[in-house]
Amino acid sequence: QKEVEQDPGPLSVPEGAIVSLNCTYSNSAFQYFMWYRQYSRKGPELLMYTYSSGNKEDGRFTAQVDKSSKYISLFIRDSQPSDSATYLCASNQGGSEKLVFGKGTKLTVNP
Amino acid sequence: DTGVSQDPRHKITKRGQNVTFRCDPISEHNRLYWYRQTLGQGPEFLTYFQNEAQLEKSRLLSDRFSAERPKGSFSTLEIQRTEQGDSAMYLCASSLVWAGGNVGYTFGSGTRLTVV
């Protein structure tokens, strides 16, 4: 079992839809949780960064972490065609610089 | 400073040849990381540097791989005797770690290696 599991999709939604992206993890020592967006032929770009459980909101993006179920979510409201990309979840332990990534979910938002 | 710069963007090499990639981090960042990403997968950690010191290496980094960061500025990743399984995107990232924490990684656009 991989430490971070993510459904690769692909996921296709109409413009304006609410998008829900999810990951599960197995390492109880993970404390930091991140979502990255990766456009084709580009490096990942940090979207959201949370520590431990709870919610964090930034504009149209909301990240949720539920440590009791080891579940990580990213919600995108009012999705736009420019949100079309691969979304990667990542986690790491306190004291470790090694990020463990999921496979990524490819999202397409259709105009 | 326009971000993390990687060179070359693409490299095609024959099996058995040696290749070297370069990464120039954001100038004020003190940590530099190398990751490898294959098609349909997330990035996998290879190694990282705090200034010029290499502090952690993944077991993915076989003895054919070597990374350096002389003078704590740019870094190079060399792969000797390349194999077809080395074909991947090699990503470099940098971050600033200070007493208040880590401001988070900035990734470069990567070097895509194809071994034929």
Strand content bin of chain A: over 45%
Helix content of chain A: under 10%
User: Could you give the distance between the termini of chain B?
Assistant: 35 Å
Shape by Cα distribution of chain A: globular
- Could you state the oligomeric state of the chains shown? heterodimer
Helix content of chain B: under 10%
The radius of gyration of chain A is 13 Å
Order of helices and strands of chain B: EEEEEEEEEEEEE
Note the run of SSEs of chain A as H and E: EEEEEEEEEEE
Q: What is the CA–CA distance across the termini of chain A?
A: 37 Å
- Uncertain segments of chain A are none
Largest interface (CB < 8 Å): A-B, 23 and 23 residues
User: Structural class, judged by helices and strands of chain A?
Assistant: mainly beta
Helix-and-strand structural type of chain B? mainly beta
Computed over alpha carbons, the radius of gyration of chain B is 14 Å
**How does the major sheet of chain B shape up?**
7 strands, mixed
Query: What average pLDDT do the residues of chain B reach?
Result: 92
Q: What's the main sheet of chain A like?
A: 6 strands, mixed
Defining key terms:
heterodimer, A: 111 residues, mainly beta, six-stranded mixed sheet, five-stranded antiparallel sheet, 0% helix, B: 116 residues, seven-stranded mixed sheet, four-stranded antiparallel sheet, globular
Explain what the structure shows.
The complex is a heterodimer of chains A (111) and B (116). Chain A has 111 residues and is mainly beta. Chain A has no helices and eleven strands. The model of chain A has no long low-confidence stretch (mean pLDDT 93). Chain B has 116 residues and is mainly β. Chain B is 0% helix and 52% strand. Chain B contains no helices and 13 strands. In chain B, β5 and β6 form a beta hairpin. The radius of gyration of chain B is 14 Å and the shape is globular. Chains A and B meet through β5 and β10 of A and β4, β5 and β12 of B.
